[in-house]
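Most newcomers find our protein records easier to grasp once they have seen one. Read left to right, the backbone structure tokens trace the chain's path through space. Once this layout is familiar, the rest of the handout is easier to follow. The record below serves as our worked example for the rest of this section:


***
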Amino acid sequence: MEKTKTIVSIGGKEYTICGTDSAEYIHRVALHVNKKLTELKKANPDLNNVQLAMLTSLNIADDYMKTSDELASAKKELERVQKELERAERGGSTANRTTPFNKR
């Protein structure tokens, strides 16, 4: 795949990014990073650029990990529901069956 060079602006500085993704995608990523950096800079004006970059990285990594965990959980739930549906289609579901009362 051919690499493209894309110039983006993050934190008021321009960076040339080389990658196989589209320029549009690279711009979307840069805009996301710049948005996070700007939010954190407003909330923490005393941080230097290195501290700000590190805090931005940690916040984005935190967002990624939470999203990844949610996706894994949703996949497990989907698998569970699919198995339940398969059992119901085979007639093995007990969800709609009545349970007999025990006589004393």
